[in-house]
Write a structure and sequence with these properties.
alpha+beta, 3-stranded antiparallel sheet
């Protein structure tokens, strides 16, 4: 699960801090809520793009199963992933948005598979690093590791695209902002 924390902070000047707190309880809070909804859509689209590029194009013609794509597959599920956005703390100056992606590995032809399907983090791990292993042996060509989730998180957090998406969404509502909101990884986040 990717979690992005957006921190809005004032300066050391108490007056500025008080003014910012007042702003966050008024019109800007409404704009932040709308911007977070836009960021939600950007996150989903970014994940779907990584599924297309890092999974589907990296191994375009699976032998053992038929791709579901936008019809209930990894990509379609990315576009409907649950995204939560909420204020953090009583002061209302920090906001958290996170995407919860738990893909369902069920398949219409699963009765023909050698093992039952896996879901969520196990499915992501199988695609990215073959752990757990696939239930069928590689045949004529090597099945590549496809780090779509790792690439998604790196793009949003390490490359700063979550900042860019949030700033663009606020600009679309007439706010003059810069892209420096402090997207942070949680302590337990790392390589997926």
């Amino acid at each position: 699960m990717a979690e992005i924390i957006l921190n809005v902070k004032g300066t050391e000047d108490e007056t500025m801090e008080a003014e910012l707190a007042a702003l966050l309880t008024g019109e800007i809070q409404t704009k932040i809520g709308a911007a977070l909804a836009d960021v939600r859509d950007d996150m989903r689209a970014t994940l779907a793009r990584h599924v297309e590029k890092d999974v589907y194009k990296a191994y375009p013609n699976p032998i053992e199963y038929e791709r579901r794509g936008m019809n209930g597959g990894l990509q379609g599920q990315a576009l409907t992933a649950t995204v939560h956005a909420s204020p953090v703390g009583a002061d209302g100056k920090n906001y958290r948005i996170y995407l919860e992606y738990k893909p369902d590995g069920s398949h219409p032809d699963s009765a023909d598979w050698r093992q039952p399907p896996i879901h969520g983090d196990e499915l992501i791990s199988r695609i990215e690093k073959w752990d757990p292993k696939y239930p069928y042996p590689p045949r004529y060509r090597k099945l590549p590791r496809r780090p779509f989730w790792q690439n998604f998180v790196e793009e949003l957090v390490d490359d700063g695209m979550a900042d860019v998406y949030f700033a663009q969404a606020l600009r679309a509502q007439g706010e003059d902002v810069e892209e420096d909101y402090g997207v942070e990884r949680e302590a337990e986040d790392g390589t997926y």
